[in-house]
User: Fold this.
Amino acid sequence: MVFFVVRKFVQTVVTRVVSRVVHMFVRKAFSKLAFAKLAFAKLVLTGSLLGAAFSANWVQARMPVTADNSLPTSAVAVSELPRQGAETYDRIRQGGPFAYEKDGVVFGNRERLLPSQKRGYYREYTVKTPGSRDRGARRIICGGQPTTPDTCYYTADHYASFRKIVP
Assistant:
């Protein structure tokens, strides 16, 4: 009889101890699992936010596009351009010759300040800057056929802003 009482006591104690140990282990494992899930969620959220911030399509402040896909830019008459700008504009209409090797290369419109067009639509031309050792910041960007462009834009600040050239 004593044997059965002792056995029952031991079973109860062992069961309680094992139950508590298992409960503590499960609770710790669950909390670690919950922590791991939370850490993973933070990692995914941070990664997606950083991915959005550093993706190829940088978010840039720009002027709104109108219904006809043109951007509202100020206009400048050819006569109002700097002398070198008017000369470059005339050379564009004549098909050259141009002062710089890079004149006439495709302009990618990465700043997206000009109306959206297919790649290759825009070409850039350098407007000489007096006293500058390099090409300087002034450019004329024309869209369409090289000698008969549909439209041209002047920038004096290396693509930070554009003014539409009106003949």
